[in-house]
Amino acid sequence: MNEMKQLVENYIEAIHTQNEQQFRNLWSKKQLCTLISVTKQYKGIDEIYHNFLIGRIHESYKSIQLVQDGPLDIRFIDEKNAIIIFSYHTKCIKRDTLEKYGIKGLETQIVTKENNTWKLVHLHYSK
């Protein structure tokens, strides 16, 4: 459970820093990874990184902070797969107007254990 909490914390930090290596290291290397944002679906780590994190988020916001609200709800599928659900909110500064902006909702992460390390396979944001 502590490993999964650390994975979520590392993901939150990677969203804030937009560090490519840090972000990529969180994801499965063995499966097709997917992310569903509030408005769009992204397939594969390259598309998730370039079109979601660097594209959509970086183009829209001067800064973004993803904040976990409340505890993680961890549900094991089996010993190598689990679902993590948590409430979140964002604190953003819009790039074009410099005004504050944020959303809140639920985030669902599907994770798998690879080489004894939990990795992201799928993320889904809802608001």
Helix and strand topology:
Blueprint: H1 2-17, H2 20-24, E1 34-36, E2 41-43, H3 45-60, E3 61-78, E4 81-94, E5 100-101, E6 104-114, E7 117-126
Parallel strand pairs: 1-7
Antiparallel strand pairs: 1-2, 3-4, 4-5, 4-6, 6-7
Describe this structure in words.
The chain has 127 residues and is an alpha+beta fold. 29% of the residues lie in helices and 48% in strands. The chain contains three helices and seven strands; from the N terminus they run ααββαβββββ. It has helices at 2-17, 20-24, 45-60; strands at residues 34-36, 41-43, 61-78, 81-94, 100-101, 104-114, 117-126.
Whole-angstrom Rg: 14 Å
Tally of strands = 7
Total helical segments? 3
Structural class: alpha+beta
Distance from first to last alpha carbon: 25 Å
Question: Residue-averaged pLDDT, rounded?
Answer: 95
User: What kind of sheet is the major sheet?
Assistant: 7 strands, mixed
